[in-house]
Records
---
Amino acid sequence: MPSILKGRSRGLAILSCLVAGALSAPQVARADSALQTVVPKTLTVAYRTDDKPVSFIEDGKPAGYIVEFMQDIGKELGLEVSFVSTNFESMVPAVKNQQYDTAAFGVLVTDERKAMVDFTKPVGYGEARLVSRKDAAIEKVQQAGGKTVAITRGSALIPLINGLAPDVSVREFPNVTASLNALMAGQVDGLFTGLATADKLIHQHEELAGSQMVTSGIAAFPVSKDNPQLLAAVDGAITKLMKDGTYTKLWTKWNPPSVEIPDDMYTEYPGMPHPEKK
Amino acid sequence: MSIGLERIQETFFDPVILWHSLETLVVIGLPNTILLSVLASLIGMAFGLLIATGLMASTVFVRFPCRVYVDILRGLPHILTIYLIGQGLPLAGLSIFGRDTYSYAALAIGLIEGAYMAEIFRAGLQSVERGQIEAARTLGMSSAQAFFYIMLPQGVRRVLPPLTGQFILVIKGTSLVFLLGLTVSQREIFSIAQDTAINSANLSPLTAAGLLYLALTVPMTYGVNAWERRMRMGSRSAR
């Protein structure tokens, strides 16, 4: 079965799983009873509690657009989704060791990480903006050379800004609140963060201004190299949810209107619907 | 080898990742950790001794504020205290150290440790027999002289072992400086290990950091113990 799955298109993979599921349990359209997961019949997913609106806790429950997207993937696979909160550094190693099936977080795909785990099809492209104080505004990310910029620790935005403004001094903070305090107190000159967060900060604090938008690389879900069936099934589910408008719907639900789906996503998934213009 | 052991080895003891992370850890992290530990310990000892004498003061106006200081700084989560001092002071417009993260962190960790050390010093100072102080006073020493020449040397010597434990906590506590934001060259052992762990998707850098912490704390413990033993023997032979 694995060799068949690898060779065929992802749509076919899902279809074959559907057939297999239908054969074993004729009454219910249970998709993937054949899928091996860490906990049987459950998709065990690592998620972050500190990245609003992507993945966080609201009213004691996991929430955010990637969290809801993962719940929809679970439905497609016929698996119950169970979310376990982790910090970013242990997320990929734990997926590698099959402690979790995957992570509800768009992990930036790098060569080092690809050596550890497999990645699904893209679920996003990193987009970011540099936030600064209006009285000392940095209009372009490229002008950050010689300035000190706050970035959340371990973020894939660090190599990005180092490439755009080689003389920049990056100061890593544990979270965006600490970065914001440092910016407000004049301890740093700028704050480089994901588009949604940046726009929220600029909206909330009128003394702040934003730079142009810049993009980084592909973000995808990690899956253990030992489980190609699961990878193929998740890929199939992602493709379906992209094309049927589920992703677009979740994106508009959770992101401010100024944050748009990257053009690369429409290229990657032809036929993916655009949000309705308000 | 069982699959479980193999996974442990790959995740925590990958020799290539361990070795690669060690270089940055030793060249950048180690000096920063030592610098911050020494600064914070000095501030902690100075505040600790001051507060310890305050805790033993006869007037309630001195004793009470010292007691409040110890209770609050020992009771608050360290993360909150470090944010309050390191981010609170600049936000209030009191950028006393400019943008120097390490000064804020050393002050914050030093103040916290001062509260713990105050109780240790107080216990040591109070363990010096009253008769010795009375004898010193009878010989014509002022109360300050009796404190500095009789009480302090003996009191501090008696609390060296618990004080060593506190120094170990300072060394490990310096990792909290990351709360205040660090540039690449400012990172201490644990920050570097965490960054490398995120980028390599492997926890071996944290193991490397653990080895460095042990390399700092274990020799220090044995060093202080040997020093304390020698001082004890010294004082015995002088009798």
---
Amino acid sequence: MAPTSPANEPSSTRMELIQGMLDQLPILLGVVPFGLIFGALAVSFGIPPLLAQGFSLFIFAGSAQFIAAGLVAEGAPPIVVVLTILVVNLRHVLYSANLAPHFSRLPGRWKIVLSWLLTDEAFAVTSVRYQKNPSRHTHWYMLGTGMILWSSWQVSTTLGIAVGASIPPGWSLDFALPLTFMALLTPTLIDRPAWAAALSAGLLSVLSAGLPYKLNLLIGAVCGVALGLALEMRQERQASGEGAGP
Amino acid sequence: MSEQALWAIVLSGMLVTYAMRLSFIALIPIAWLPPLLQRGLRFVPPAILAAIITPELLRPFGVWDFSFQNHRLLAGLLAAMVAWRFRNTWLTIGVGMGALWLLSLVS
């Protein structure tokens, strides 16, 4: 007799969980050295070890942590540091909005946990997963990807605090992140508006890369979304114009 | 800076960051977004991925570099072709990192 679908459920949730972990591994190549450097740098700035770990434990956002630690070292007022963290992390609102429709039927405890794990890296693989291979259990995929990222970030911060960052810069492991994102970008380029969104976002981001607070990412993303949308609407108008022709 | 001030930074930083992560997932109904913006959300992944990639290639160490000395640009272009052709993450990383290491060995 064919197995009933409920019997398949545990295995397919576990497979999503494991696939989420596996898909995060290439990104960890870049994240782990980043965490080591953060831990080492934070204590060198005079931040006590427990607090340096606290940044990773509670804020869990790499670029915001680096910028905040730098401001702390310069003696910036706490309110300025917190506002900077807010601005640097603004793009997470876009991530939250993109994933919200997928999570709308999940119980509250899932939303609480998955939001906690929502980072650039987790969003990158999860949003592409929802586009390419969506299933009823894709939230397990994000759980797996977020858990492995979170734990790697904690352990690498701890190691950086305790023994310093000892990976030679010549290895250029930070380059693994843009490379992984290239492989993730290609399947999202499904039509012209998506191409327009990516090209304009990439262009504006690099043009505004001199701005502080990682604002270039937000500017690029917002302009990319706007241009993609504008192109899509124009295509629709043209299509409906042709349909309604004389 | 005192330890209390640092803890205040960490906990407030956590609050603002988590609030933004929760925003549309748990705090604000997505239906409150105008329908047009909801449609635009599908462009967030390609836009943010491209926005993260381009400065890493064209301004690798914070300054513009269009020269052949910019190994990250050359390795990145090669990796982009591999990503496009094979759609495989590990292969893209392998080719990109390999090219970067080779270029730095040669020069």
